Amino acid sequence: GGKSRRRGKNDADPVKRELVFKEEGQEYAVVVKMLGNGRVSAKCFDKETRIAQIRGAMRKKVWINVGDIILVSLRDFQDNIADIILKYNPDEARDLKTYGELPADTKIEDNEAGSDEEDNDIEFDIDEI
């Protein structure tokens, strides 16, 4: 490809997808730490901390960060290792929380919004000019 191939595609707002719930042998988790080499440390909602492997179809296509809510597939032969099969965006994670799938105290980080709310407490006095 040429110049248009290098620029990439303009996929700013993906199509709304159907919400996927956990099944037998799967668990919701939050990413605690990036370990490198396609692995993350994930705190599952069954109170277990597992090393989760990003599956091949998600590598270099779906970017996973600390604080993301993910769906992991548990291994029957290794309890401390799991495979990441889906990353929930913040809207989907909020929906899971309202359906009662996630605990009520789960903190959902909205990384894509680029929220700069630290500067909200600055006040200006116009009368001093």
The helix/strand class is: mainly beta
Please write the string of helix (H) and strand (E) elements. Answer: HEEEEEH
Work out the oligomeric state of the chains in this entry. single chain
Percent of residues in helical segments?
A: 10-25%
Helical segment tally?
2
Strand content: 25-35%
Termini separation comes to 58 Å
- Which strand order does the major sheet show? 1-2-3-5-4
Q: What is the mean pLDDT?
A: 84
Radius of gyration: 19 Å
Number of strands: 5
Low-confidence stretches: 113-117
Written account of the structure:
The protein is 11% helix and 29% strand. By secondary structure, it is mainly beta. The longest helix is centred in the last third of the chain and has 9 residues, at 90-98. This is Translation initiation factor 1A. Keywords: Initiation factor, Protein biosynthesis. It comes from Coemansia furcata.
Describe the secondary-structure layout.
Layout: H1 3-7, E1 26-36, E2 39-44, E3 49-54, E4 69-74, E5 81-88, H2 90-98
Parallel strand pairs: 3-5
Antiparallel strand pairs: 1-2, 1-4, 2-3, 4-5
